[in-house]
Specification:
The complex is a heterodimer of chains A (about 375) and B (about 500). Chain A has 13 helices and twelve strands. Chain A is of the alpha+beta class and about 375 residues long. A four-stranded mixed β-sheet of chain A has the order 3-6-7-10. Chain A has a four-stranded antiparallel β-sheet with strand order 4-5-9-8, with no helix packed on it. In chain B, the strands form three sheets. A four-stranded antiparallel β-sheet of chain B has the order 2-3-7-6, covered by helices on one side. In chain B, a hairpin with a 2-residue loop joins strand 2 and strand 3. The longest helix of chain B is centred in the middle third of the chain and has 37 residues. Chain B is globular and about 75 Å long. The termini of chain B are far apart. Classes of the chains: A alpha+beta (about 375), B alpha+beta (about 500).
Amino acid sequence: MSSQIFTLPDELLEFKKSAERFAEKLILPNALSWDDDPAQFPEKLVREGAQAGLLSYHLPVIEEDRLGPPVFPGLLPTVVLMEELAAKDAGAAMIFGAHILGSLPLALIKDAAAERFIPDILASIESPKPALMALALHESEAAEVWTTASKVEDGYAINGRKRLVRLGNVAGHIMTLVTRDTDAGPAAWALALIPVDTQGCYVERVEKMLGQNICPMADVLFENCVIPRGNLLAKNKAQPIIEEVLAAACAINAAVAIGTARGGYQTAIHYAAERYQGSKMIIEHDAVSGMLTDMQVRIAAARGGLLQAAAHPNPSRKELALSKIYSSEMAVQCCLDAVQVLGGYGYMHEYGQEIRIRDAQMTVHYEETNQSLRQLVNDKTREELEI
Amino acid sequence: MDSSGLINCPTRLPLEEAFIRFKLLEKKHKRLLARLKQSQAEARDFADMEILPIALELDEKVGKDTEFYDWDITRKGMERGFLTYMFPTFIGGEGRMLMDLCLMLEELCCACGGVGLLFGAHWLGVGGMLMSFDMEMYYEIFKSIVEGKKRGEPILCAAAVTEPMAGSDVEDRDDIKNAKLISTAKKVEGGYAINCHKVFISDGSVATWTAITAALDKDRPQETYTGFVVNKNWTGFSVGRWEKKMGQKASPAAELILEDVFVPEKFAGTEGHGMDMTIGTLCASRGPLGAISTGIARGAFERAWLYAMNNKSGGQRLIDKQWVQMKLAQMLILIQQSRQVYMDAAMAMEVLNFGVIHPAPAWISKPAGLMVRTWLNHYPGSKIMRTEIVSSLTKRFREKYFATQGDPDRERIVAKLMVLASIAKVSGADTAVEVSRLAMDIAGHEAPIREIGLEKCLRDAKLCQIYEGTNQLNRATVIKYALDLDKLGVQAT
């Protein structure tokens, strides 16, 4: 499985190009001001993104009265898109990334209950005010699910608190991991599709974070929040769905990390070719060219690993985890170096380079921390080797 | 963060155990150790009680309004003597030395890198002025700082070296030759007219006195580079942008624009000795920079330590998990290393300092030392000290000092100091960044949240690799001066 050699198919190369144009036109000019004032959520970006298909390409399409396969199935398109957007601004990329994660379960569950929602979601995406979807997994302690769904007369009552929900305060729906029995472990898990205007669904706080500021993270509280019976999805099979979503989250964060590093590298190498110091352009100093080359090495290695893992028809959770760990950590190092190349200018907000350190560091912590992924890789490897 | 849980934190060992060499020194230098312990304790108290409670809030305030400056914390620090720290006690100072300054900066930066820099940049400015060896200048400037303290008004200093087109180039004795300089000075009657454009000047927008460098002839910078001191109230002095920095926000980084500022003769250094003065200043300042960085690293460690003590995962305290212990251990190792090397640099300044603070040959240094003491004993004293006799004496002293430039004994000492100081700077800066990253790993999902305080450590840390010469320039400097030693011989023959 790890020896395939591929090039991106033509339609993905085209997709990549249009993603780049989209990012250049709609993201790049705003990246600084978004970082300054994250309270101004970029509705326009979301709207234009929706029109360009960036909120729906991964979802089944409506063919006459049936649902047909997505325009771009699989992880590869998402990986390509995320790198291009993040090369301009990682926070903006993660708005789309978070929506993809929030809506992906609908495509993965593959039953009538889930498919029932797709036409409405697609219609909203085409409307002037597209409803984003958020994914709510984390709680106060990692890997614990204490948010409950209990049967009531007209549906399910959701109770609990979800931490650090991306887009939690701006999304239209929150795909929430719940349990029907806190003692029964993952077997009792399910996914509750909660419209944010449901009574009992509150945004408690929006956290101030290190980076990716334009993609907000909120704590969401569910207090006797009653949803219709049909909104509780993936009963008895939520765990494999969550595993697949988390695998996609690894791919998305790895791609965002790579894009962020690439953006930092591009700024750095152009600056190095223009900055005179020590009697020559700094790109001619070994101290600088060495750093620039190391950035290229790392980015190329990370991208190779990610494309390899994402191109597989059944992407491996472990391989994507490997890719996310490496990509996120190399991205932080690349961006630290990319700032270093710019010296004092790199440290100043206005030059747009210091944002990248902050954005890259975010990929180390989300959606799963690198520490928990290291544990996962170790566990899976031992399973494979039976040791 | 509440510092009460940190009393037994491994980074808070008693001074003579954190730096075990002081255990040996204690026998012969009881008073020195007592003073150092006092310096550390006072600064730690100030950091825990005054800085820690406001650090995050201040960072956010400046983030929103780059021209916000916290005069309140400056005043509180002034009352503790942080602006008069290294002045002799009998002129109203605290009588501390470079080792004390390093300990103080480590403590302050542990609570907040920005507030630490605010006081550190003041001493960088004072350091530049000290390099002038000009008693009249000392008299004016130090008097104003001491008297400001008495009035309750902080008088700050800053050093302005970096220019838009020259960062590393103005911190290297060879690269200055081909630097693209903007700042110039012109001899006029009674002094100099200077035109400068300086950028990223720490404390530049709030300092009353700024040590500044400019070339008399841009085509011959090495020969004509000269140090000056300017007052913010002088005609032609203006502050441009207050930069929006990634971290260390409490201390502003400002653009300074000087248009035909007249600098009286007595505020000018010796013509052509600007680079010599810069090198001397860097020998003294890169050690404290290592201390600033180590302090930021320690802040990250202590926050992570408390986090690991107080948070559980899977029913187990984080601190009891092996992966957390591996990271904490690595952090502690780096901090211990950086602490020792910054103390090496600071001690070397005090032990070997004749090369920089005083000229090397004893026939100059002895009478010069006597003269300094005489002057200080009379401060602020009788008018006699400001007569022409004193002026001419200090002038001759200065001339003698700079006449020793190129003297192998002196160059040897400068080289040794520069190597140690640059090592301290690089080691501290890399430690600060690495330790902050490791600290964030420990706090997992919560690490990037501002209130946890760890993301600020990372933001603060990154600047350490850039200012006082980038780490790349500092590494080059280490070997450049090591090669000087190779040429001169490591010992006098």
